[in-house]
Amino acid sequence: MTARLGFGDRSLRVDATLAIRNDSGAGIDRLELNTIAAQLGSMVRLSAAVDGRAVIPRRSDQTIVVPLGGVLPAGASATVYVGYSAHLRSGTSGSDWLFTRANGIAELYRWIPWISRARPFDRPNHGDPFVTPISPKVVVRLTTDRALVVATPGRRVSAVGRTQTFEATQVRDFAIVAAPDFRTASRHVGATFVQAFVRPGTAAGPRLDAAEHALRAMAARVGPYPYASYLVAQTAGGYGMESPGLTWIPGGIGGADLRYLVTHETAHQWFYSLVGNDQATAPFTDEAAADFLARSVLGSRRSSHCATAPLDRSIYRYSATCYYETIYIQGGNVLDDLRRRMGDAAFWPALRRYVTTWSWRLAPPRALLDTLDAATSLDFGPVYRSRFPTWY
Questions:
Q1: How many domains is the chain built from?
Q2: First CA to last CA distance, the chain
Q3: Partner of 280 for a Cys bridge, out of 119, 208, 300, 323, CB 3.0 to 4.6 A?
Q4: Do 201 and 128 sit in the same domain of this protein?
Q5: Do 229 and 367 share a structural domain?
Q6: Mean pLDDT of 28-49
Q7: Residues 290, 256: one domain?
C-alpha cells in the first residue's frame, strides 16, 4: 500500500497492490473488497487493474467489486491494483469516528481494500459490519503532509523524511491512528512490547497498566498473545475499537471504565484477530467471547438490562438500545453459565482448544459452542436450542 495522508486538509490517496491466490477450490471471476472509505470517505477516482490490464471496478455500499477480466482458476494467482482518493470526516458522531481527523487525531479503520464478503454498512447499533480473512503480509508506505507520530499494527522498517514504511504479518486489518503531538510510553509484558500513544493531558500509565493486566491474565486462560507488540492508542472519540495488535481507546475515559474498555478490546486480540469470524452476521462469536473473557479477568459479571433475546442474529437485527445488553452481556453470561456447569478444569482447556483449532482462520458460528459441548457429558442442547434457534 502506498498512501498519502493530508492531515491538514483531511485528504487520503491510496494505491494498493494485492497479490492474490485463489484457494476457494473453484474458479472465481471477481473480488469483493471491503473498505470503509467507500462508505464514509466520499470516494472518488476509483480505478483498478488485473495483471496490468485495466478493469472497471464497481462500488456497492462499502464493497468494491473488481472484475478479474475472466475466470481465475483454483490455485491460480493474480496481481490486482486498486486506487482511490477520499476525505476523512471532521467529527466523531455516528460512524464518523472510524474514518476521521478530529480533536487533533487522524484515525483510519479498514481503509485498505481488503478481500471480504459483501456486507452492508448499515449500523443500527455499534456492531461491526465486517468480515476479513488473514493477510500473510502487509506493507504500507505512508507519506504525510507534516511530521506525525503513527500507531499501526505494523513494525516500522524505515523512515525517510515524511514517509514511513510499516510491515505487518498475519493481520485482518491495518488500522492507523496518528497525531503530531502523540507522546508514547512503553514496557515489556513477557516477550510482548506494549506501547501507549496519548496526547498531552492524557496519562499513559493507566492504559499500560490495564493492558498489562489483561495480557497476562488472558494468556493464562486462552493461550499466548499472538503478536510481538501491542499498541493502545488514544482516539478522537466514538467507541473503543479492536484491530490486530492495535486497540483504539477514546480520550477522556478513566477509572473502571478505562480498565473495562482496554480489557475488552484486548480480549479481541484472541476473538476476532486470532480467531476470525463474520462479525456482521454472527457477532456472538467474537463479542460475547471477548466480553466473557474480559469480565472473567475483571470479575465484573452483571445481569442484562434488556429482555432475554436470541443470540444468533446478525448485527442488523438488534436495536441500538439492546445490542450491547444482548450480545455482550447475555452472550457472555451464557458462556459463563456453561463454564460453571462444566467446571474450570474442563472449560478453559476446551476454550484453548477452540483457539488453537481456529487460529488465523474464520470460525463458523457454531464452532465455539460445539467445542464446549464436545468437552463435557452434560446436555447443553436445551440452552443451545433456546438461545441459538437458527444455529441449533
A1: 3
A2: 42
A3: 119
A4: no
A5: no
A6: 98
A7: no
For residue 288, what is the DSSP state? I
Q: What is the pTM of this model?
A: 0.97
Is the distance from CB of 378 to CB of 342 less than 8 angstroms?
A: yes
Give the pLDDT confidence score for residue 358 in this predicted structure. Answer: 98
In a domain, 341, yes or no: yes
Q: What is the tens place of the pLDDT at every residue in 171-216?
A: 999 999 999 999 999 999 999 999 999 999 999 999 999 999 999 9
Contacts for 220 with CB less than 8 Å, ≥ 6 apart: none
Per the document, the length of the chain is: 392
Q: Which residue has the cell 457454531?
A: 366
How far, in Å, CA of 106 to CA of 182, rounded? 11
Ramachandran region, residue 353 (left: φ > 0; alpha: ψ -120 to 50; beta: rest): alpha
Phi, psi (degrees; rounded to nearest 5) at 249: -130, 115
Q: What is the pLDDT of residues 112-147, one digit of tens each?
A: 999 999 999 999 999 999 999 999 999 999 999 999
Helix, strand, or coil here: 357? helix
CA distance 383 to 133: 30
